[in-house]
Write a structure and sequence with these properties.
The complex is a heterodimer of chains A (352) and B (330).
Chain A (H helix, E strand, L loop, with lengths): L28 H27 L9 H35 L11 H23 L3 H22 L7 H24 L3 H11 L11 H17 L1 H7 L3 H6 L4 H23 L5 H13 L4 H25 L7 H20 L3
Chain B lengths: L18 H19 L11 H34 L11 H15 L5 H25 L7 H23 L3 H8 L16 H11 L1 H7 L3 H6 L4 H22 L6 H13 L3 H25 L8 H23 L3
Helix pairs in contact in B: 1-2, 1-12, 2-7, 2-10, 2-11, 2-12, 3-4, 3-5, 3-10, 4-10, 7-10, 11-12, 11-13, 12-13
Classes of the chains: A mainly alpha (352), B mainly alpha (330).
């Protein structure tokens, strides 16, 4: 009989001393160490590229007033990169968790088409003067509000009621974007080439589009949205198990989903209104972050994703600025790389 | 045993030519005649009115018929091959690929003739469509809605390549003008290539049954003795030729291949053989109606038909989605 009864005190698996018995974000101490090494490496890279961007190839001798002026000017661009990285990374990770799909990005929801349509309309109606005067804080607020209104209308309408269906909502967002795109491209035909050239600069995401005057509005928006998502990270951890499991574990699925989507939309809307459209940056960053962090826990995913975003952006800008001398096409390069990674990921995963 | 009277099975009218279709043809015919006479130039009163009539109006109307039928049927064939209701050249990136091909020929050959441009567009459209189908075969789907989303993102990648190339060669605004589908530039001597599309339409009619079987999936198609891969290649080839030719001559006609087959199958069910003429007819009708609207909306100027189609198509597509959502079919 003693053979069948299990020993009441089976020797526990060797654990590190004083570590409480819980399954945390990392299954083994080794995984935790690996995570912190990755974070350290990312921080190192971010500091490296950030300082390089600010100080590299500065024509003024170190320490003079001119040097500091140039450095100050450049540090604004670096700060914008950091802001955009946080926006895109956090929004994409949260969005992909809520949609339970690591292929989608929130930026395909028609925000970019809306941005392009707004910009094109302002040039079309008021000419170049319109575009130049359409750069104040109010225009920024106006754009963010319009984008948020579209997002909230879509969510409120399509994610409530008996027939709530996330994918229908996404597709409708995309299609609305397509319709807006048709309108924009029609107006673009009617512009003079010089007007079109000025507009083109706005059509591609670029940190030079950002105006420091927007910061008083943009920074609080980003901080609040990120704080909301950060506070919800435990719910997000549960949601990543899928809808049914999350509901079983007591998460109010629909409410959580709508709050997360609104916060993510605020981030993407801010980013788009600040620098212009960046379709695949979020996707690229989120995909890399899942590989780097190797955990399900959003409290650990978010920082890694944001850091990765900053490293990708600053490295791309540094390389394009100082090696290829083509800073205007940074966003297109990121689009190409991100798009290619997107296709590879789909093919490797083998399921959507 | 004896009590039951065996009545003949009630068959749905599946004749290719029933009276409803004739009415439809008549309605579209009226639209086409209207298309012949709508415009700024006074063809009745002016001296060279008849010349003008044959230089612009007749070619334009012929182009409407060919492009409308071809794009609607391409959408239908794509939906059959992918077993997905939301697939058409706009939502799979095929159009973007055709545009990239067009751009590629512009770079390789300075001022290429129309035929060279077209061959480039067709080849790229074929490659792009095959890539998309390869995706669908490698990737197991949890939901049919993901397919258009992925296709649109794929199109965005290809589109960003085109944009990059166009930026480098300083032809971005031209690119926008080419791609916006419009029948403005269709005049005598500029559109004759479109007649190729007639062959495509006939070919689709001929292989309709095989495409239907292929639409049941690879296993069933192979079981009934069909070479599945060959029919997929054939279908893709037909789509690519139609899309490539129409993109080069007319431009991008968004959503046409999506809304037409869906409306027809909503009303008539899924009998492909008797639906085909309806799809062709409705495609012609919608394009013609949109083109007439585009000609009169800001007289004496025109807007590109893709603008009207984009807005109307987006609205219809959303209505279709909501309807399906309500039915819980998704």
């Amino acid at each position: 009989m003693a053979l069948i009864t299990a020993a009441p005190h089976a020797p526990a698996a060797p654990r590190e001393a004083s570590s409480p018995r819980r399954s945390g974000a990392f299954p083994t101490p080794r995984a935790a160490r690996r995570y912190w090494l990755v974070v350290a490496a990312l921080v190192g890279l971010a500091l490296l590229f950030g300082t390089l961007l600010i100080s590299y190839a500065n024509p003024m001798p170190l320490g003079t007033r001119g040097f500091w002026l140039i450095a100050q000017h450049r540090s604004v661009a670096v700060f914008v990169m950091a802001l955009i990285a946080v926006c895109q990374a956090v929004a994409t990770v949260a969005f992909q968790t809520v949609t339970n799909n690591r292929i989608l990005t929130p930026s395909i929801m028609g925000f970019e088409s809306l941005y392009r349509a707004i910009q094109t309309t302002s040039v079309y109606l008021f000419g170049l003067a319109g575009l130049v005067s359409f750069t104040g804080v109010w225009s920024f607020v106006f754009q963010v509000v319009i984008m948020m209104a579209l997002a909230c209308a879509l969510y409120g309408w399509l994610l409530s009621g008996r027939f709530a269906n996330l994918q229908v909502m996404l597709l409708i967002g995309i299609v609305i974007g397509g319709g807006l795109g048709a309108v924009s491209s029609f107006m673009q035909r009617l512009l003079t080439p010089s007007e079109f050239d000025v507009l083109t600069a706005r059509m591609f995401g670029s940190v030079s589009n950002a105006n420091p005057a927007y910061f008083p509005v943009a920074i609080p928006l980003v901080v609040v949205s990120v704080a909301v998502l950060w506070a919800m990270s435990r719910s997000l951890n549960t949601l990543s198990l899928g809808r049914d499991a999350a509901v079983n574990l007591g998460v109010n699925h629909r409410r959580t989903m709508i709050i997360v989507l609104i916060a993510a939309s605020a981030l993407i809307a801010t980013s788009t209104a600040l620098v212009g459209p960046l379709t695949f940056l979020g996707f690229l960053v989120a995909t890399l972050a899942y590989q780097f962090a190797d955990t399900f826990d959003h409290r650990y995913l978010f920082p890694v994703a944001a850091l990765t975003g900053f490293v990708v952006l600053s490295a791309a800008y540094f390389v394009m600025n100082h090696i290829f001398y083509g800073s205007g096409v940074v966003s297109i390069i990121i689009e190409l790389v991100g798009g290619t990674v997107f296709l590879i990921v789909i093919l490797k995963k083998g399921r959507l | 045993m004896t009590g039951t009277t065996t009545r003949p099975r009630a068959t749905r009218a599946a004749g290719l030519l029933d009276w409803r279709l004739l009415i439809g043809v008549a309605v579209v015919g009226v639209l086409l005649v209207a298309s012949l006479f709508v415009g700024v130039y006074d063809i009745v009163g002016a001296e060279d009115g008849w010349q003008m009539f044959f230089i612009t109006r007749v070619p334009r109307t012929i182009a409407l018929v060919l492009a409308g039928a071809a794009m609607a049927m391409s959408g239908l064939v794509m939906q059959l091959l992918t077993q997905n209701r939301f697939v058409e050249p706009t939502t799979t990136g095929t159009t973007e690929w055709a545009g990239l091909g067009l751009l590629a020929t512009m770079i390789v050959f300075p001022n290429p003739p129309l035929l060279v441009r077209m061959v480039g567009a067709v080849i790229f459209a074929f490659i792009g469509t095959m890539i998309f189908f390869a995706f669908l075969r490698r990737v197991t789907l949890r939901s049919s809605l993901i397919v258009p989303i992925v296709g649109i993102m794929l199109g965005a990648v290809v589109g960003s390549v085109s944009t990059f190339v166009a930026l480098q060669t300083n032809s971005l605004q031209n690119l926008g003008v080419w791609f916006a589908g419009s029948f403005i530039s269709v005049i005598e001597g500029q559109y004759e290539v479109l007649w190729v599309v007639v062959l495509i339409v006939i070919a689709i009619f001929v292989v309709a049954d095989r495409l239907t079987v292929a639409g049941l999936g690879e296993d069933i198609a192979t079981n009934v003795g069909l070479n599945y891969n060959r029919i997929v290649l054939l279908g893709t080839g037909l789509i690519a030729i139609a899309t490539g030719v129409v993109t080069v001559v007319v431009g991008n006609l968004p959503f046409l291949g999506l809304i037409v087959p869906n409306i027809v199958s909503m009303i008539r069910g899924d009998d492909l053989r008797s639906n085909l003429p309806w799809v062709a007819l409705l495609g012609v009708g919608i394009v013609t109606a949109c083109d007439i609207i585009s000609r009169v909306i800001i007289m004496p100027f025109e807007v590109p038909v893709s603008l009207i189609l984009g807005i109307v198509g987006a609205a219809v597509f959303i209505a279709l989605l909501l309807r399906q959502r309500r039915a819980g079919a998704l």
